[in-house]
Every structure is written in structure tokens, then in C-alpha cells.
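stage 2 :: seqdesign
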């Protein structure tokens, strides 16, 4: 369940910080040393502070052991791994945006953003490496790297994020059977229950090839991935027996096709509105969706 930490940190750190900076997030046309220093100091402080806080809030009370490696690549049908990809992508982009706002060339800013993302996300692995219940995960490192690379390649070579990655979540009835694992209140269920989470890849292929298309650039296609009926990490069937009644939960993967809105492509000259649009792009907009799972095709009138 390690992936939930990154969603929580992303929501609390990135979105709040963006709204705080909204009133002066107008990019500098030239290198602004004061901004570069300020961003660097703030980034280093946030890095150290958030890791320290997480240690005392999350890790401190867990049994410790020596540095060890743990293979969790098959748990939760890779939902937590995709969470690593999502977090690394947005951490890198957030930091890169701040350095570009400070007046750095977008290529240099993207390199710094990518380095920050890799370094920050790897810090979690060293915390996990001495935790008895987890361990250093090479699969986490792989997805962290992939998420960072997905941001960096688009930013460095094209100075535009043609493909974006988003998140959506809803409550499921499964949490009641394992509330200690899947959550026992609204916030914890949203963060812990992978069955209600969906990660999306959102893009507009028309404008890749035809810039003057009549289809608005802010209308995107979106492909999503989720799971259902999974109550234990290893993916096996979970059985609950209550008297004469037996409930069997056999997990399966879900794939979705839907539409989405790219808020950043909506034209506006107001910096504060651009900041809000940028923040909204972390989340997938609810739309009707086709679901492909268990060899069948289903229709969701409104899926989030």
C-alpha cells in the first residue's frame, strides 16, 4: 500500500503550493537569480521537511531491520507502481515549471526537474529498505524512472506535454471487508482502496498532426487502468465465511476508454487562471466511459 503516500503528498504539497504562488507565477523572461535561489532553498527545505515528517508519522513505529531488497512487483496488479509513475511525472514537472518560471531555459529546467524527481522518489526507497515489512524495491525505481522520463522527454524535446497522466477515485463497497487495509473513512478509502482508483493517460492525437483542426485542443481522449475485487496484495482469491454464507473475491483488471479535458489548453492570458488550470490537470474529469474487463465490454454513464 505504499503508493497511497505519494498521492497524499502530491495533493497536499503540489496543489496547495501552486495556489499559494498563483498571484506571482508569471515566468521571468531572463534569468532571475533571486527566484532560482528561492526555488532551490524552498525545494531543499520541502524535501528534507517532508521526508522527516513522513518518517515520524509513518515509519517510526514500524519494526526496523538491515538494508534489504523486496520484490513487490506483482502486488496489487501494479496499481501502486503506476502510482509511482504518476507521482514521479508530476513531481518532475512541478519542479521544472518552477525553474522555468525563474527564467531558466526549458531544457535546463527540465533536467533539474527530472533530477529532483528521481532523487526525491528514491529517498522513499531508502526509508523502505530498513523497514521490516517492506524493502528497497527495484520495481519502484523502474516506475519512478519511467514517470520522470515521460515528463522529461516531452519537456526537453518539444517543450510541451502532449501526453498527460491523471488520477480519479471513487468509493467502493470492498473497504468494509478489510477496513484496516482499504480504509475506514472517506479520506482513507480514497487513498488506500486501489479498487476505486484509476490512473489515466490523456492526450489529443488530432493536434499532433493537424494544428488547425476544428476539434478543440482541450478535448482529449483518455485511457484508464484500474482493478476490482482485490482485497489482498498478492492478487489471490479472498474468501470470507459468515456462518453458512461464503463470499469469494477474485481480482481482475479493468481498462477504460473515455474523454477528458486538458485545462491547460484552454486559452487564457491570466496567470492565476493558468495556475488553477495546471492544478486541475492532476485529476481526470468525470465522463462516460467504456470498460473492458473479464473479456466483456461495459458502459459507465459517468465514471470517475
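stage 2 :: out
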Amino acid at each position: 500500500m505504499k503508493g497511497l503516500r505519494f498521492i497524499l503528498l502530491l495533493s497536499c504539497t503540489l496543489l496547495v503550493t501552486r495556489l499559494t504562488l498563483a498571484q506571482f507565477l508569471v515566468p521571468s523572461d531572463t534569468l532571475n537569480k533571486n527566484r532560482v535561489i528561492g526555488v532551490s532553498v524552498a525545494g531543499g527545505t520541502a524535501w528534507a521537511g517532508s521526508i522527516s515528517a513522513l518518517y515520524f508519522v509513518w515509519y517510526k513505529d514500524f519494526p526496523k531491520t538491515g538494508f534489504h531488497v523486496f520484490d513487490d512487483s506483482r502486488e496489487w496488479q501494479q496499481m501502486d507502481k503506476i502510482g509511482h509513475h504518476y507521482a514521479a511525472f508530476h513531481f518532475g514537472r512541478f519542479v521544472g515549471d518552477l525553474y522555468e518560471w525563474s527564467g531558466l531555459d526549458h531544457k535546463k529546467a527540465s533536467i533539474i526537474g527530472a533530477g529532483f524527481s528521481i532523487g526525491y522518489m528514491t529517498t522513499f526507497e531508502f526509508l523502505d529498505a530498513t523497514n521490516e515489512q517492506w524493502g528497497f524495491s527495484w520495481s519502484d525505481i523502474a516506475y519512478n524512472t519511467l514517470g520522470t522520463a515521460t515528463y522529461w522527454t516531452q519537456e526537453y524535446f518539444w517543450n510541451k506535454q502532449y501526453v498527460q497522466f491523471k488520477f480519479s477515485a471513487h468509493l467502493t463497497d470492498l473497504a468494509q471487508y478489510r477496513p484496516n487495509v482499504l480504509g475506514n473513512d472517506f479520506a482513507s478509502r480514497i487513498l488506500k482502496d486501489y479498487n476505486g482508483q484509476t490512473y489515466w493517460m490523456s492526450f489529443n492525437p488530432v493536434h499532433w498532426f493537424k494544428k488547425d483542426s476544428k476539434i478543440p485542443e482541450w478535448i482529449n481522449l483518455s485511457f484508464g487502468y484500474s482493478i476490482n475485487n482485490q482485497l489482498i496484495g498478492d492478487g489471490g482469491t479472498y474468501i470470507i465465511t459468515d456462518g453458512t454464507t461464503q463470499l469469494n473475491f477474485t481480482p481482475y483488471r479493468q481498462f477504460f476508454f473515455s474523454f477528458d479535458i486538458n485545462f491547460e489548453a484552454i486559452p487564457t492570458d491570466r496567470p492565476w487562471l493558468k495556475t488553477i488550470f495546471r492544478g486541475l490537470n492532476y485529476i481526470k474529469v468525470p465522463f462516460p466511459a467504456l470498460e473492458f474487463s473479464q473479456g466483456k465490454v461495459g458502459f459507465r454513464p459517468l465514471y470517475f
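stage 3 :: structure notes
- Strands lie at 163-169, 197-203, 219-228, 238-242, 245-249, 252-261, 287-293, 296-303.
- DSSP finds nine helices and eight strands in the chain.
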